Amino acid sequence: MAGILSPFGSDDDPFDGYDEFVPENVPSPDRFLEGHDVLYGKDHVAFHRLTRELFEERTVYDMTFDYNLARLNLDSRHPDAGFRYAEERSDADDTVEDKRTERVLRADFTPTTPFCPQSHTLTIGAFRAWNGLSVRHEYDLVRVRTAPMHHEEGSINDRLEALEETYLKTGDVSVKLDDHSEVGSPPVERDIEQERSDGTSTDAPF
Length: 206
Hints:
By secondary structure, this protein is an alpha+beta fold. It has one domain (about 25-190). The chain has helices spanning about 40-60, 120-130, 155-170, 190, and strands at about 35-40, 60, 65-70, 80-85, 105-110, 140-145. It has a four-stranded mixed beta sheet with strand order 1-4-5-6. It has a two-stranded antiparallel sheet with strand order 2-3. Helix 1 crosses helix 2 (about 120-130) and helix 2 runs parallel beside helix 3 (about 155-170). The longest helix has 18 residues, at about 40-60. The protein starts with about 35 loop residues before the first strand and ends in a 15-residue tail after the last helix.
């Protein structure tokens, strides 16, 4: 597409590598990560490299750029967008009180704009990918939130909290919440069944 650089790289590749941690090209830790152990350097790189694999398997794609959402962290054209991670501290006031969740990771997503229509869909897709494939990492739960800069942050995060509570009760990441909990962009069930821009189906990955 004209005006959109290829996500697969070129001589003018705007992307950092998955083995690089470039602080100026990732968002600063936001309030959801405050008081917890933020991942830096090789720790961030290791989890984000795994994230790429899980997102590819579950087809968590940014439909605007038509690439794996994990790649947003590496896109130097959007240095303040992407995920930051922190291991949850057990002595914090807002930790998960569930004996089955000894190791919890927090993931804070900053979209490219305050009005990004995909933030609702992408964060739910990320939650389902990380927790639906939890055997692939060391965490019992990955909690996901949208950064405060998004204009519907409150509504999106309310739904993410509800999804998290339902998952802890049922162990099922695919449970759909009531229609009244849908906010912002079209429901996940619709978005994940739509075709990609290249005409291939996402096959309802979440």
